[in-house]
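Support request from a user on the community tier.

User writes: "When I paste my structure tokens into the form, the page sometimes reloads and wipes my input. The last time it worked, I copied everything first. Here is what I submitted, just in case something in the input itself triggers the reload:"
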């Protein structure tokens, strides 16, 4: 199926197969506040007297959509689901797999009483091969999941999940257990487990293919790239190892004029369809076929600008918390994710910063398909130490691997506002941590800009992101109006009282144009908010709100040195009422008005930024 024909329901958009089955829906559920479940072997029991509740997966128990909606802290929860045998049937050497999109935070999985998987990391996917646990002759099988999520463990990456009993300031309800799709596949023993694409818009693309096993005999890997009915490239490679790199040259890219039709951008989000087939080299028998897609584009920085396809590109971004009223950190499905991308674009933004979480891959699919730049971020821990460093680093690297082939993802942000590393200016260990995360990210993916920190206290960022919630447009102009004005800000404590650059290298990179300036959080205006709500600046009428919003955007857009901005925020979230939309998704101003404010359009003509 072509990328443009997908409905976005498949949970893993970049590695798709025809045969799959969703396990989302009603499961048995139980709290385990005494920690007795493993000792009493809940994974081996019929559920009577133990699994006393029902929950709708993939919504966390704290979310109203789960059917439970209980927000009190519970450290351990259990799930149980009966699965018909035909759903997991594996014949002739096939493997039955159960995939988990995300389970917060530590998970154990049993099938028919046998442990089949363990995983740590609340945002990263994992797979249980349940083939060896299937009871012969059984009409159905029992899948059990135990999830542990300590609300008091500050070393555990949690992002905007509150560590206090009740949400406060800019932190929200917790998420425990399953919060992304659970689904099954039946595959051959030898199959593709990972597929990555490295585009080169001037030449073609490199495919990185990972197989489940070391080949016992040579295999053939066929890769076909096509656009519409036209085959752009075709390759057959004999492989004898589980990992291979396949270089695909696209002849159509040689024509610099025609090349433009194949490049991906928000204005023209062209996707190249890809099919990978694994065959027995001797018998030509097909072992596995997967569908994917590629976006041909480059992302970088230079000359004081963000570069998309080697050209300066002004970034108009909005911060999206990714929390929803009924589902919290989860979502109501692919339709809701598509509508969010469409709304962001309709408001005049060309980018989104998904804040303090790794969003569902289907959101990235819609960003790829509809054309929206994404800044990839992760959930922060809130203390520094060996455990925190290990947990976040492992989870972050897994997320980069998960999302690195999405053309929409153009920037990596492993740390925000020194959360989890609060003493970067003074503690060499924390400074090394910031530098190490940035450099590890560059080692895994050298094709995108990386921020060593976001907002302040940069150590070696490719973009100098600054957070500034001033409600005075003239003050923004005094700070960012020209290079001399910002030089004074850079030399001082910064707009939020924190140094912006804590290394000479970072200051030199900005001065040379190798780290462009962006105001990556600003605004935070609320409209007729209640006293108990959180906002950076309150307005009391539509007129006051629209006027101040327009003046803040104009002040940044008129700067000759600001390469882009990110407005806080997309939608009101819980008690944080900084959104351009109310919690139900309705806009606080007409969408056309918001678009004119964001883009500077006047009478249909766009005013160039900078």
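"...and here is what came back when it finally went through:"
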């Amino acid at each position: 199926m072509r990328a443009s024909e997908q409905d976005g329901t498949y949970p893993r958009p970049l590695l798709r197969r025809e045969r799959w089955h969703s396990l989302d829906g009603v499961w048995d559920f139980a709290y385990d506040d005494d920690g007795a479940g493993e000792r009493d072997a809940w994974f081996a029991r019929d559920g009577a007297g133990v699994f006393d509740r029902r929950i709708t997966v993939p919504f966390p128990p704290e979310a109203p959509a789960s059917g439970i909606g209980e927000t009190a802290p519970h450290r351990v929860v259990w799930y149980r689901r009966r699965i018909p045998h035909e759903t997991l049937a594996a014949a002739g050497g096939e493997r039955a797999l159960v995939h988990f999109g995300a389970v917060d935070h530590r998970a154990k999985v049993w099938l028919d009483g046998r442990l089949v998987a363990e995983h740590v990391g609340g945002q990263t996917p994992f797979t249980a091969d349940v083939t060896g646990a299937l009871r012969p002759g059984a009409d159905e099988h029992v899948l059990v999941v135990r999830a542990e999520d300590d609300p008091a463990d500050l070393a555990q990456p949690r992002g905007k999940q509150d560590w206090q009993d009740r949400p406060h300031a800019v932190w929200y309800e917790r998420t425990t257990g399953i919060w992304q799709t659970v689904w099954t596949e039946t595959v051959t023993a030898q199959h593709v487990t990972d597929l990555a694409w490295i585009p080169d818009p001037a030449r073609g693309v490199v495919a990185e293919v990972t197989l489940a096993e070391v080949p016992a005999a040579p295999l053939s890997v066929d890769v076909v790239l096509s656009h519409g009915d036209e085959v752009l490239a075709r390759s057959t490679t004999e492989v004898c190892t589980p990992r291979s790199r396949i270089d695909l040259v696209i002849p159509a890219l040689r024509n610099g004029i025609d090349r433009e039709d194949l490049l991906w951008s928000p204005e023209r989000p062209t996707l190249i369809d890809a099919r990978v087939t694994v065959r027995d080299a001797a018998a030509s028998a097909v072992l596995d076929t997967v569908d994917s897609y590629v976006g041909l584009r480059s992302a970088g920085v230079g000359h004081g600008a963000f570069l998309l396809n080697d050209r300066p590109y002004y970034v108009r971004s909005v911060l999206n918390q990714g929390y929803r009223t009924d589902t919290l950190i989860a979502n109501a499905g692919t339709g809701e994710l598509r509508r969010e991308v469409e709304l962001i674009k309709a408001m005049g933004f060309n980018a989104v910063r998904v804040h303090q979480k790794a969003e569902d891959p289907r959101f990235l699919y819609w960003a790829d398909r509809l054309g929206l730049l994404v800044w990839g971020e992760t959930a922060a821990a809130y203390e520094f130490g060996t455990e925190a460093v290990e947990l976040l680093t492992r989870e972050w690297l897994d997320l980069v691997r998960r999302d690195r082939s999405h053309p929409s993802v153009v920037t990596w942000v492993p740390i925000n506002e020194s959360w989890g590393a609060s003493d970067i200016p003074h503690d060499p260990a924390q400074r090394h941590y910031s530098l190490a995360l940035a450099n590890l990210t560059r080692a895994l993916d050298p094709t995108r800009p990386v921020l060593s920190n976001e907002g302040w206290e940069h150590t070696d960022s490719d973009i100098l992101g600054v957070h500034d919630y001033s409600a005075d447009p003239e003050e923004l102009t005094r700070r960012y109006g020209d290079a001399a004005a910002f030089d004074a800000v850079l030399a001082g404590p910064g707009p939020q009282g924190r140094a912006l650059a804590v290394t000479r290298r970072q200051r030199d990179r900005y001065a040379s144009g190798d780290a462009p300036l962006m105001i990556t959080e600003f605004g935070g205006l609320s409209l007729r908010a209640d006293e108990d709500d959180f906002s950076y600046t309150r307005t009391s009428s539509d007129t006051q709100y629209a006027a101040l919003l327009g003046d803040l955007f104009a002040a940044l857009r008129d700067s000759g040195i600001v390469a882009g901005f990110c407005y806080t925020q997309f939608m009101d979230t819980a008690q944080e009422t900084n959104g351009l939309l109310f919690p139900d998704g309705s806009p606080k101003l007409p969408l056309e008005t918001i678009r004119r404010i964001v883009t500077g359009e006047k009478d249909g003509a766009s005013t160039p930024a900078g």
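Agent notes: The reload is a front-end session timeout and is unrelated to the input. Confidence is low (pLDDT under 50) at residues 603-610. The CA atoms of residues 109 and 117 lie 5 Å apart. Escalated to web team.
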